[in-house]
Amino acid sequence: MNPRALSEWLQQWFRKGTGEPAYRQLYRLLRQCILEGRLHAGTRLPASRELATDLSISRNTVLQAYEQLTEEGYVSAAVGRGTFVEDISHELPVQIEPPSAGPGTDSEPGMSRSLSKRGERLITSLGYSERQHGAFMAGVPDVTEFPVQQWLRIHNRHWRRLRPELLSYAPSGGYPPLRQALSDYLQASRSVNGAASQVVVTSGIHQVLDVVIRMLCDPGDRVWVEEPAYWGIRNLLISHGMDVVGIPVDIEGMNPTTEQMRRPPRLIVVTPSHQYPLGMVMSLARRRRILEYARQHHCWILEDDYDSDFRYGGRPLPSLQGLDEAALVIYAGSFSKTLYPGLRLGYAVAPASVAPALAAGVAELYREGQLMAQAVMAEFLREGFVSSHMRRVRSLYAARRDRLIVAVQAHYGSKLEIVGDKAGLHLVLALPDHVDDAHICREAYLRGIMARPLSMYYLRPERAKKGLVLGYACVREDEIDPAFAILAGVIDAELNA
Amino acid sequence: MNPRALSEWLQQWFRKGTGEPAYRQLYRLLRQCILEGRLHAGTRLPASRELATDLSISRNTVLQAYEQLTEEGYVSAAVGRGTFVEDISHELPVQIEPPSAGPGTDSEPGMSRSLSKRGERLITSLGYSERQHGAFMAGVPDVTEFPVQQWLRIHNRHWRRLRPELLSYAPSGGYPPLRQALSDYLQASRSVNGAASQVVVTSGIHQVLDVVIRMLCDPGDRVWVEEPAYWGIRNLLISHGMDVVGIPVDIEGMNPTTEQMRRPPRLIVVTPSHQYPLGMVMSLARRRRILEYARQHHCWILEDDYDSDFRYGGRPLPSLQGLDEAALVIYAGSFSKTLYPGLRLGYAVAPASVAPALAAGVAELYREGQLMAQAVMAEFLREGFVSSHMRRVRSLYAARRDRLIVAVQAHYGSKLEIVGDKAGLHLVLALPDHVDDAHICREAYLRGIMARPLSMYYLRPERAKKGLVLGYACVREDEIDPAFAILAGVIDAELNA
Q1: Is the ipTM of this complex over 0.90?
Q2: Residue B364 domain-assigned (yes or no)
Q3: Is the same domain home to A364 and A453?
Q4: Which residues form the domain of B215?
Q5: Is the CA virtual torsion A87, A91, A93, A97 positive or negative?
Q6: Interval B53-71: pLDDT, tens
Q7: Closest residue in A to B370 (Cα–Cα)
Q8: What's the whole-model pTM score?
C-alpha cells in the first residue's frame, strides 16, 4: 500500500467513540498492517498532518501513535524525510539461518561455526513472545495499575541519600533488609518458614530454577516436571542437559505413575498452589505423598509459586514448603505477577543446609546488582504497598475474568469448556483434539490478539491437549468483548475447517 | 567485648580530623570489630547517646553509622531494646555444610540430597566478594561520581509518561532505541561494526558469555581462555561443563602453543584491549593471527572489552571486532565500569548470522525485563552523558592511580614491580613466587582492605604467579595512603615470614 491507499484503508476501519483511545486504535491498526505484511519494509507512512485531516483527529494523536510504533521498532523516522516501515521479519516467529560450515573446509565435523546442538534445539521450541502486553497475553498483570507515585517517592529518596554500596555488585543472597522483609512477608502471606538467611533474592523464578539446576543437579540428572508445564521451565532444563520426565496431572495435581516412581528424580518441579497452566490446586493428601516420596528418595523439590496471590473466592492455600519437615523444598516466587514483570525481582526460600550455596551461586554465576531496586522493594514491602496493591487489583482482575467468561459463554454456550478460572491471571479455553491450536494463535497474532496454544505446554506432542491459554489481567474490561470477537472469528474458522 | 569495653576500644582508635567523615570511620571500626570476631553475634552495641558523649561526636553521627551497619546486615535494631550484632558467619568465606545422605538410606548412591558435583566444585573456587566498594576493590568504579541528577531527570520523565510495554518482559534483543544508540556509540568509540539488529542487550558481560555458551557450545566443547583470566569466566565455563584450556599470555597478549593450536577450540574468550588482569594490549600482528586461525578452524571469538574506555595516555585501541572480516567475533561490553556495576546493563554485538539466535536465547533463557532502565540508558547515551562522565572520571582515576604508584614506590622502591598500570581501574603489584598472596588478602580483608590474589586468576595453580590485584578507582585520593599503609603492613609480615 502507498500512503494514499493506507490513508483510505484507515478511514474505512478507524472508529471514533469505541472507548479505546484514538492514538491507541490508530497504533493498533497500523501495527496490524505491518504485521500482516500489507505495509512492506521501507514504505513511507502518510505525513502526520495529512492523516490527521483525513481521519478528523488531532495531529498530536497521529504523532503519539507514530511515536509508539517508533519506540517499538515497527517504524523509524528520518529527519525531514518522513516515517518509514522497518524490516520486522525478525519480529515474527524467529528465523535463524541454517547452520553454515563457513568458508573453510579444513575442520573436523561438528566444529562448524554454527549454533550448538542445544542452541538449535532451543530455537525450535521458543516460547517467549515479542509482544508482552494486551489482549490476551497470559502471565502479565495490568502494569498500568502499578502505584508509580509510591514507588518513585521511595526510589528518589534512596537516590538522594546515596550509599555507594547500593550501586556496586550485590552481596550473596541480596540486600539484607529485603531478605528480612521477604522472610516476614512470606511467613504471613504464604506460611513459608525461613529466616532471612534462607532467603535468596534473584531476578525472577527463572533464575531460581537456573541456579538450582546448576548448584544441585549435574547434566543427565533426572528431573520431574508437570505435564503440561510452563514452557520456560522445560526449555531451561533441556538447555542444561537434564533428563526431563513429564509427570501427568489430574484434578489433585501432579500424579506420577508407578513406573515413573520406580526411578526417583534428583529434582521435582511443581506448581502446587495453582497448576500451570491448567489451574488445579494440589490436594493435601497429594502434598503429603510427594513430600514423603521426596524424603525417602532424597529428591529436591522446587515449589514454583508464581501467582498464588490471586484467588477469586477462598483464601490462597498455604505453601507446600510450610508442610515440609525434611528440609527438601525450595520455595520460589517473584513480583512479576503482583507488581510488574520488568522489575525482575524474585526470590527463593531454601533449606538452611543449601541456602548459602544457592546464594553464593547467584553471586558468582550472574554477578547480580540492582541493589537500588532491592532497597526500594524492601521499603515498599514493609510499608504494606504490595498487599494494598494486590487487594485493589484482585477485584479488578476478578471483574475482567467474569467479563471474559461471559463473552466465551455468550459465543459458545457449553460447546467449549473453560478450565482453571478460579485463580491466577489466565484461564484455559479447551478445544477439541482435532483442532490446530497453534495455528489459531498465529492467525490471532496477525490480528493483534495474543493467545497461547495449550499444546505448546506439553513435553510430548502425542499427549498434548488442545486449547487456548488466555490472560485477562492486562486487558481493560471494555476491551475484552471486541478482542474476544476477533479471536472467536479465528477459532470459528478453524473449528469449521 | 561488652558495650563498655567496646566504647573504650573505640575511644582509643577513633580519630578526628583524618579527612574521613566521622560516621564513616565509626562504621568502619565497628564493622572491623564484627568481622574480626571481637564482637560476637548477640552483643548489644552501646546506646547511641552514650557513645556520642564518649567520643565527643553528635548523636546523629552515631545513628548514621548504626544505620549503615543495619542496612548491610551487620547489626539489627530491636525497638526499645537496643542494637545487636548479627550472626555474620555466612558473610565470611562461604561455609557449606558437608553433603548429607539425609534421614533415609533407601536410595541409589549419588542420589543423596546434596549439592551437585559441579555445584561443589564451584563452591570451592568462588571469586566474588561480599564487599564491593572501597580500598582496593578491583573492577569497581567510583559510583559516587555517577551523575545522579541527569539520570533521575530522564528516569522520572519516563515514569511520568508511562507506557505499559516498558514494564513487561523485554522483546528479544532488548529495547530497540537502545540497540540503535549502542550501535552508533560503539561504532564511534570502539570501531565496532554492527547494525542495531546485531546488538543484544544483556544484564552484563557475564550474561553475554552465558548465552554464548548455551547457544553456541555444547557440554564438553573446548574453550580457550587466557591464563590468567577473570575468575568469573572460568567458573562460568566450568559450571557449564566446557573443556577449558588456559592459553599463556605474553607482552603481545594471548599466545597459544603449537601443541594447543593442533586442537582447535569451539570458542576463544579473549581481552585484547586490556588483558585481564595483567593489562597488556594485544598487538596488531597477534590480532590478525588469531582472527585468521579462528577463520580457518571455524572457532567463535568472544571479545571481552570490559574496561578499554579507561586509558591514561594514548587513545583506546579499536576493537578486535572491527578487524573481523569473517563474521566470527562476538563483541561484549557493559556499563559496569563506565557508570556503575549495580545497573546491570551490558551488550553484545554479534555477527548477523547468529545475533537473532543470541537475542532469542536471552529472551527465552533469562526472561529479561528492565526496559525502563534500557529506555533511560538509550536517552542517557544519546545525550552524551556517558561520554562526558567518562572524560571527567578518567582524570580522577588517573590521579588516584598516580597516588597509589607513589605510595607503592615510597614503601618498596624497586623491590616490588608494578604491572599493567597504563589503563583500566586496577594495577597488579607483583610478589615473589614463595609468597602466599591469598593469605595476604585474607589478612587484609580482616583489616578492612580488599585485594585480590593474582594466583586466583590462574586455571592451573602450578603456573600461578603471585601478586595483588589492586583497584584504585573507587578509593578517594586521600584514603589511598592510609589504606596502603595497612596493606603494606600485611605484605611485610608475609614477606618476612
Answers
A1: no
A2: yes
A3: no
A4: 147-383
A5: positive
A6: 889 899 888 988 888 888 7
A7: A342
A8: 0.81
